[in-house]
Amino acid sequence: MSCFAWRLPVAKLTEGFEAHVWDEGAITTEATFVNDGVKTYTCTVCAKTRTESVAFECAEVPFEKSTVADKTYATITITDDTIGTYYFKYNVSDVSMERSESYWIVVNKAGGGLTQNDVNNCKIYDANKQTIKDTIYTQAAGQFMATREGTGEEYDNAETMAKLKAEGTHYFQMTFHSAGEYQIQVTHFGNVGSNAKWAIQTTFATSFTSEKCSINSGNDKWFAIDLTQEIIDAINANDISGMFLDRDGNRISTVTIKVYDSEMNELKNDAIAEGETESDSLYVEKLKPGRYYICVHATATCYGYLSISVC
Q: Could you give the CA distance from residue 189 to residue 200 in angstroms, rounded to a whole number?
């Protein structure tokens, strides 16, 4: 038996055919918050069309702890022609289910004067754009209490709270009723200073004095300090000490002070100078640029302030 291959000349296959040349496309179906849109492209040679889906775009809003010194915001400019409802997304992270932690959606208006009539109708959705909360308590103009714990119908139950605090992407909507430039942030609140996670951010050059605060017996107060190489060079050439002082500037002896690096490794002091206590001399190890945490532990309830200085 014989066999043969039947092949057409290449010229015959390509004759009369040209590659598609697609235009820039046009939106033929607008995307909505819950449904993708459609963009249609047309071939300029043969008028054939093709389509692709277009995702709904949401501006991302920063999710930051209340202790962040230099907060960041998402900015949206509303004109008389663009007044209406907008959607935003934010990423929940590092939120404890403890009642002491919450987060709020915070809105500011350039130039001030924000009223509750400027922006309202705030609702929250999960990563699948399913409604979590369609009524949000407003503490004041631009202060939307996203998580609200308590008892009663006006507060969030355990199931709702778990959804609101779940790690990952969330969405919210709000309606703007007046023109202006608005700043938006989701602010994460906790028991400030109670642990390293909520350490109070401080600025340190060659000295630092904290705000006065109270520490209950057996509790801690945490502070965070960022050290540059310039500061470290100054520290390494001198001694550094830290004390918790009362309102009259006298050292309180019922506290201990410890220093930790950014990985929460305690910096041990192996060379305490004569006459000093371990809580006075903060470290002797070689420091590197970065973040450090200072923990003040009270063995008796006290009221005062932390003072750190290079001498």
A: 12
